[in-house]
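Thread amino acids onto this structure.
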């Protein structure tokens, strides 16, 4: 083993010029570290306040101004809208979908139309993914730099390196190989870490396929007598739910890695577990609780409960089905007239699905009455969309020249390794974005 256990390359430094958190990191993780930030780490980027004219405009004025700007930009711009966005902005999206599907579409449409700009109505890690996959020279824009993701922010690069060093030390005298697998909902730096260390990215619809690949040895088939362990990050729930559906025991085959307090996990747990689950979660999906399933079944005995695998395992166990955002949409669109569904995912998507399904006499509602809303995604609104489009066109009188604001750029070295991790996933699952819903343990028992 080389002196540098983490495999860190000084060239692999993922600084974002506009992000003081990343820029404050030491150039090598083995140099003394600055103290890790407390509890929840935020990579929320600075968003300048909009000029008053944008916040004073009425809704019809905003709609008309955005349409005028889009007309002026024509094929130069592609607008992508994540399913969790509010209606007021998703109406302007050329394409809607989950984050991976949208990033693939961005790359495809840029190639087809020669578009120069991709405006991503989503959150920061999604815009990073679009920048990774889009052809060289494409400008990816996030209308509000404050639109981060609490889950992605729970795993940073330095913490991942620290974890890797502990795992390397723990398994030093054992015939163990650790393969890192990251959920799409993480920063480009984490995707790159996985790419550089023999791992891959997964989505909520293909996590089982990627985990099976990793357990078989990933890029190198597992040798006789060798044990494979998975470091799964940043969402503990997707990792736990997927491994449990594959037959692994949630108590004995898995342990949690708390990046804020690594001493929470002892060496025996690490040695015993097949899955080391990063202690991260989605602040939206964690709001669903098992009793919500009981309550809805008491109200509607014939209901089908379908939840996203970012929900707690107790919720997934009680549900009838689990599925990614695309999987949930497919299930509702195929539902029998007269059927009733309770869905555990973000409220804007569920409300849109409910309106669409009502026309076919399918009843859809949220699993709980709590406000399960992605507050960071909610920051993307019409004033911010108009502001970035205004900057791209410049003023009509020519007084204000066109300029690019809020561009999301991934460091070329991070892009290279993140692409490796994404390509490993694509080699397993093809286009990878639409799979049938995965039955939960509850529905298969
Ligand atoms: S719904 Fe959860 S995982 Fe998705 S962007 Fe919002 S905080 Fe992140």
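Threaded sequence (445 positions):
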């Amino acid at each position: 083993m080389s002196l540098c256990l983490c495999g860190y390359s000084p060239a692999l430094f993922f600084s974002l010029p506009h992000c003081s958190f990343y820029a404050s990191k030491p150039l090598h993780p083995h140099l003394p570290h600055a103290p890790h930030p407390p509890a929840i780490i935020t990579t929320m980027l600075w968003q300048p306040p909009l000029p008053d004219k944008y916040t004073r405009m009425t809704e019809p004025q905003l709609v008309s101004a955005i349409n005028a700007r889009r007309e002026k930009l024509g094929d130069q711009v592609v607008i992508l809208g994540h399913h969790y966005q509010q209606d007021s902005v998703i109406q302007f999206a050329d394409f809607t979908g989950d984050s991976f599907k949208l990033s693939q579409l961005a790359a495809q449409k840029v190639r087809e139309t020669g578009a120069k700009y991709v405006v991503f109505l989503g959150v920061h890690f999604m815009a990073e993914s679009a920048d990774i996959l889009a052809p060289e020279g494409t400008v990816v824009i996030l209308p509000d730099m404050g639109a981060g993701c609490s889950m992605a922010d729970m795993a940073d690069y330095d913490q991942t390196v620290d974890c890797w060093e502990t795992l390397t030390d723990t398994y030093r005298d054992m015939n163990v190989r650790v393969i890192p697998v990251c959920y799409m909902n993480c920063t480009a730096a984490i995707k790159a870490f996985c790419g550089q260390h023999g791992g891959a990215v997964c989505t909520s619809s293909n996590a089982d396929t990627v985990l099976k690949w990793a357990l078989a040895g990933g890029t190198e088939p597992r040798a006789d007598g060798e044990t494979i362990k998975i470091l799964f990050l940043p969402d503990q729930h997707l990792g736990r739910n997927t491994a449990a559906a594959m037959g692994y025991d949630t108590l004995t085959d898995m342990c949690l890695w708390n990046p804020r307090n690594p001493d929470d996990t002892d060496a025996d747990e690490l040695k015993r577990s097949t899955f080391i689950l990063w202690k991260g979660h989605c602040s939206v999906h964690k709001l669903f609780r098992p009793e919500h399933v009981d309550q809805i079944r008491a109200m509607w005995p014939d209901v089908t409960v379908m939840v996203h695998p970012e929900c707690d395992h107790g919720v997934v166990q009680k549900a009838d089905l689990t599925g990614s955002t695309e999987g949930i949409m497919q299930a509702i669109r195929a539902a029998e007239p007269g059927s009733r569904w309770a869905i555990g995912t973000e409220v804007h998507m569920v409300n849109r699905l409910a309106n669409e399904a009502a026309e076919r006499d399918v009843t859809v509602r949220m699993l709980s009455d709590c406000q399960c809303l992605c507050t960071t995604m909610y920051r993307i609104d019409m004033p911010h969309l108009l502001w970035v489009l205004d900057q791209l066109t410049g003023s009509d009188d020519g007084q204000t020249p066109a300029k690019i604001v809020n561009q999301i750029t991934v460091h070329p070295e991070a892009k290279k390794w993140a692409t490796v991790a994404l390509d490993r996933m694509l080699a397993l699952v093809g286009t990878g974005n639409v799979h049938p819903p995965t039955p939960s343990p509850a529905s298969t028992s």
